[in-house]
Structures are given as C-alpha cells and as structure tokens.
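Q: What would this chain look like folded?
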Amino acid sequence: MGGNNPLVVWDAADVDAVASIAVHSTYITAGQRCSCARRLILPEGPVGDAIVASIVDMAGRLSIGRWNDEPAPFIGPLVSAAAANDVLAAQADLIERGATAIAPMQRHALGPAFVSPGLIDVTGIDVPDEEVFGPLIQVIRVKSFDAAIDVANDTAYGLSSGLVSDDEALWNRFWVESRAGIVNWNRPTCGAASNMPFGGPGQSGNLRPSAYYAADYCAYPVATQAARQITRMAIKGID
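A: My prediction, written as structure tokens:
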C-alpha cells in the first residue's frame, strides 16, 4: 500500500486554497498515511512561486505537539525516533543530490520523534522513486500539463493522485490518464472512505488473495473525491 503520490496543480486561481489542500495532503498525521502527497507538481513561473510561498507560510504556522495537548495540534510525532531519523536522512540524501531546501524538515525541541514540516524543490534532479513516510513534500516544476501528467505517472507506485484545478476539462483528462487507484479533484490526496475502493496498480497493490478478481480491486474501479470549486480548507491552529 505504499505510494509516491503526486498532487498536480494547474490553472487554479485561488493560491491560498490550493496551498491549504497541499498542506492537508502532505502534512496531515505528520505525513504518516500511505495516501499522503509526496510530490507536488507545479507550473514553472510566478504562479508556481506563489503557491510555494503560501505553502511555506502555512507550514510554518502549523501547530506541533503531543497527542494530549490542548488545543489539539495539527502535527504530532512520527511513530518513533528511528522513523524521524529515516525521514531526515532521506531529506539529506535529496539535498546531497542537488535538491533545493526551501523549508527543510528539522528536529523539533519536543523530542527525537518530532520533526517540522518540510518542502524541498527537486526539479531537474534524479531522485529515488521511494516513499518518504513523513511530513516532506518534493516540488517539481514543469512547462505543460502534458509534462505534469508524465511526471505524476513516473513512479512504480499507484495508490493516490490529485489534481487541483478550476478547469473541469483538465480534470476529465487527469481522471482518465492518472495511473492511480484513488484520484481526487480539488480534494487532498489522502481523501478516502471505507465504502470506496482502496488500492492501486504497481507496487501499491494490496496483494490480498482473491484469485481472478484480485487484479480488479487492486487497480479498478478508481475511487474519487471531487469538488468543482477549489475551496480553502480549515487548518487547525491557523484558521
């Protein structure tokens, strides 16, 4: 059920609403969901710059705390100090490969299992197709929507993907061409429900034994949560 899940943003006017969806997709439960976004695919130029700036602003104001803190924090610890070590090491490796640390994850003063939310730009960098299971998003800038779909599908995984866009025609195309079992529109990539299919092709298949039908529920039907309008999501501690 792992995933190197993409969130694509294209032709979306409300920058702050886009950022709120990206924050929920990436940093909810400290990024410890297999359906969290790991890659944020943006257009080159000032539009992408504005989205990144808004995400960095929101991420910097997210509350970090323990499970029993009041009010409840947006981000808690990773499952262990070893897990925090792993995600920090993965980030260090990406930076060593040439990634730009816009807002790097850092160890938090609350304890060795706590890290801050991170955002790095890996555009043009050869990076591993691996799931970093923590609050880190890798930004990739592209020139066209065609390139965005190609980058989104350039993974051995296929659990979830998302499109944030005001253009329904782009959504209709993305839904068909996206190689994932959970494909959402203007909703976080981790949006799912117990009464919907949950799984995906490639290394995201759930591998439950079910003879002939196993291939069907691992890849199809595709589960979707969609909203025609991009709406800013409330973020605990900010809104």
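The chain is about 30% helix and 15% strand.
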